[in-house]
Protein: M7GpppX diphosphatase
Organism: Pelagomonas calceolata
Amino acid sequence: MPEPSDANKRQKPEDAAPAFSDTISNFAVEETLRFEAGGRLAVVLGKLDGRDCVLELKQRAALADPRALEDALPKLKLTLTNHSGAEYSYYAATDPTTGATYDLEAVWPAPERLVQRKRPAEICVVEETAEAYDRVVRPFAEAQAAKIGWIDAVCALEKERERNLHACDAFVVNVDTKWSTHGPFDADRATWRGADWTRDLYLLAISKDASLKSMRDLRGPDGAGLCRAMRAALLRCAADVYGVPATKLRVFFHYQPQFYRLHAHCTRAEHTNPGCECDRAHLLTTVAANLDLAPDYYARAPLTYKLRLGEKLHGLLSAGA
């Protein structure tokens, strides 16, 4: 494999550089994790500068099989469309030989948990009791939370500042990096209101309190108040910045969350994207009402969710059963 060009040499993700410049020539394929719908969705695991990198490609013009995709990767011409300021970057990619075009998401360096989540796997349903949470899940969540120091930089507006829509003592509201169709962040924000791409609206409210790892840690009036404040801020930002009214939106927590710092999602109600299912999404209005009824509701309530067979948390829960 050729040495990466100066333009493609990568620094640490905290240097806020995207994974690639204009080609993927320095990406070493290890395994195609998923190749679905005739190649219209593919996830490829490989190495970039010696560290794991995951590419997720949504195909606009399908190639025939995984080998054809792997052979085409070094030839893709890339245009950076978005970058999270950390490990997520997004591109419009074209294969000049076949004309195949892609929406490409690069995660680099890719954490082990993400690689596992991208692999095809059997799904099982878990009912987590309060006892199982205290004995198994809480230590797991605390260990995972220790690995996400970048969240503090986001909450302090040291990272992703261009994505920030609101900040207060308790939390920040940012444009989620999953909103890959968002317009240019250096444009006048007045041009964002009512834009066609607001159909993909995806906002995130992130707690500044590191002791709040998930909704399991919410208690009583303070927890209910935080839920209501986060929801109000998300809806206000959606309306004021993008012109999307509250009647078009859902605001929810994930459980289990993708990362262990309390954060709320705000998406368009007509989008049934992964994560809005009843066994993962918990509406903030419902969470607040439950805390009003019982201050320690989320310390005691059983919570049901899906896990992938073989992922670390599933293994821990199975071993502790």
